[in-house]
Every structure is written in C-alpha cells, then in structure tokens.
C-alpha cells in the first residue's frame, strides 16, 4: 500500500487501540516501581509517546526496527570470527566491504555487477561528483532508470 493508504488504515483501525495502549501504559506506570524493568519501560514509552505516535501520522514509518535488525544480523553473527581478522586496518576495510555488500542487498543490486562498474573507475583521478556516483544507491538509481527506458 502507498503511505497515504497505510496512514488512512492506521487512523481507522489502529488509532483507538493506540489510545487504549497509551492509557494502559500510564495506568501500569502508577502501579509498578519506577526502577523495575516494567517501570523503566513505562517511563520510556510515556516520555517518547509523541515520537512513537508518528506511527499513526506517517504511513512510511514502521512500528519496529526489524528491517534494520535483519540487515545488521549477518555481520553480527560472524562478529567473533572477525575479531582476529589479522591486522588493525583489515577490520575497518572489512567493515566497509560488508556495509557496501549489505547496501547492495537492501537495494536489490547485484554485487558482482556493482563492483565490476566501481572497480573500472580510476578513483585517484575521479572528482567528488564521480565518487558520489559510485555508491550502491546511485548505482541502483541508474539501473532503475535504464530499466524504465
């Protein structure tokens, strides 16, 4: 659904439940110890309720961060394996490579095609504008415009 449709759906079907949830959190906050895990959760929700409510007002906002966690998970699974990567500089380089590959995956870009194009550019003589065009997002935009032509 388009963001406007999602927003309309949420206003129609979720707004009442959202209001009930806010009331429930406020009532629970009064019955639990403030330093308890439930008390801390209630305080957090109450203090951030305005920001959390953006979920109702903006159809493009997700209620959770599952998409981001799913993107990060592959790198976290191997974190212990990469602790002893061999050289101090290798860790940063590996992080950059993994970030680029995950970005390609998120954007639906074939990493081999992307890297073939990037490695064909002499970055020592490239301008800042040319370097900016080497990002996975810029590559995906070019691919999409080629496919729509």
Description:
This protein has 149 residues and is mainly alpha-helical. The protein has 2 domains: 55 residues; 83 residues, no CATH class. 74% of the residues lie in helices and 0% in strands. It contains 11 helices and no strands. The relative contact order is 0.07.
Concise structural overview:
This protein folds into 2 domains: 3-57; 66-148, no CATH class. It has 11 helices and no strands.
Keywords:
2 domains; 11 helices; mainly alpha; 149 residues
Helix content: over 70%
For the largest beta-sheet, the strand count, sense and barrel status come to: none
Residue-averaged pLDDT: 87
Give the N-to-C terminal Cα separation: 25 Å
* Count of DSSP-assigned helices: 11
Fraction of residues in β-strands? under 5%
Domains (count)? 2
Poorly predicted ranges? none
Would you tell me the structural class of the helices and strands?
mainly alpha
Shape category: flat
- Number of DSSP strands? 0
* H/E element order: HHHHHHHHHHH
Over all CA atoms, what is the radius of gyration?
22 Å
Itemize the secondary structure elements and their pairings.
Layout: H1 3-13, H2 15-31, H3 37-47, H4 49-52, H5 54-57, H6 66-77, H7 79-82, H8 88-107, H9 111-119, H10 128-132, H11 136-148
């Amino acid at each position: 659904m388009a963001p406007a449709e999602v927003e309309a759906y949420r206003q129609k079907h979720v707004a009442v439940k959202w209001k009930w949830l806010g009331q429930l959190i406020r009532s629970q906050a009064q019955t639990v110890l403030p330093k308890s895990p439930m008390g801390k959760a209630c305080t957090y929700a109450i203090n951030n309720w305005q920001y959390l409510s953006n979920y109702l007002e903006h159809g493009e906002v997700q209620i959770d961060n599952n998409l981001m966690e799913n993107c990060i998970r592959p790198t976290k699974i191997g974190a212990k394996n990469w602790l002893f990567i061999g050289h101090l500089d290798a860790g940063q380089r590996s992080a950059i490579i993994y970030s680029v590959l995950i970005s390609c995956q998120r954007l639906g870009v074939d990493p081999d095609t992307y890297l073939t194009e990037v490695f064909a550019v002499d970055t020592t003589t490239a301008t800042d504008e040319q370097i900016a065009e080497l990002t996975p997002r810029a590559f995906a935009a070019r691919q999409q415009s080629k496919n729509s032509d």
